[in-house]
Amino acid sequence: MLVHSRPARRALQILFLVLFLPVFALPLLMIVAASFASSWSGTLPSGTTLKHYQDIAHGEALDALLTSVLTALAASLAALTAGTWAALAAEKLGRRARRLLDALFLLPVAVPSVVVGLSFLVAFSRPPFLLNGTPQIVILAHTVLVTAFAYQSVTAALARLDPAYEQSAAGLGARPAYVLWRVKLPLLLPSLTAAAGLCFALSMGELSATMMLYPPDWLPLPVQIFAATDRGALFAGAALAVTLMAATLLVLFGVSRIRTRAAYR
């Protein structure tokens, strides 16, 4: 650590806990507590129950969770492909063209996601690109919203990549395609997995654009959480939120294992 004094380190640790618990940990713990609550009249729940999770197991929440996972997986894969391709292409561009490309990818992040949803609603409401009322428009909107993070992650990794590996392979007679698939992409694998995990997590929690675009037969879990809390079922909504968090963390844990092995390799 930068602080070598033991009392100073302890003071920083206490300060971290004082700031971390109320701002980050406590709200999540309250959501978990609410998911098991049957009533809440004081500081803590007045009664506990598993009914909310039992309703999830026998209701439409599992279908909504599967919808969210499929949407996030498809959007993450598409975003990672487009972002990596663009980052590799940007290496060969000049400074002005690269800045323009950066701005284009960051534009969906710079505006509210509800604006992105409205733009898709208007752009794809008539032939020949009639996508309104289909799952594809939701996946496409999620892809646009998260591609910027994949592009920035891969761009940063390429800036740190030692060009000696690529130059050595090319000097030994390897073709550009072979260098890309056998040298460059394997070196980028830790950053690619990190970008995929980030895109997945962001897509799992996206609500604003999804609310404007989702069809009745493609209901993601965040929309169901909003609907539950909007009608006053706060405890049921909390159980749905915990389920969403658990599913997201489970996938991120699997991605982190892949990233660890890739980094070790």
Protein model, in words:
The relative contact order is 0.13. The protein has eleven helices and two strands; from the N terminus they run H-E-E-H-H-H-H-H-H-H-H-H-H. It has 265 residues and is an all-alpha fold. It has a two-stranded antiparallel sheet. It folds into two domains: 6-48, no CATH class; 58-264, MetI-like fold. Helix content is 78%, strand content 2%. The model has no long low-confidence stretch (mean pLDDT 87). The two termini are 28 Å apart. It has helices at 6-35, 51-58, 61-90, 95-110, 113-123, 135-160, 163-171, 176-204, 208-213, 221-230, 234-264; strands spanning 37-39, 47-48.
Topology of this protein?
Layout: H1 6-35, E1 37-39, E2 47-48, H2 51-58, H3 61-90, H4 95-110, H5 113-123, H6 135-160, H7 163-171, H8 176-204, H9 208-213, H10 221-230, H11 234-264
Antiparallel strand pairs: 1-2
Helical run tally: 11
What is the number of strand segments?
2
The CATH topology of the largest domain turns out to be MetI-like fold
Strand adjacency order, main sheet: 1-2
* Helix-strand pattern: HEEHHHHHHHHHH
The average pLDDT value, as a whole number, equals 87
Secondary-structure content class = mainly alpha
Helical residue percent band: over 70%
Question: What is the global morphology?
Answer: globular
Keywords summarizing the entry:
265 residues; mainly alpha; MetI-like fold; 2 domains; two-stranded antiparallel ribbon; 11 helices
Provide a concise account of the structure shown.
This protein is 78% helix and 2% strand. The protein is mostly helical.
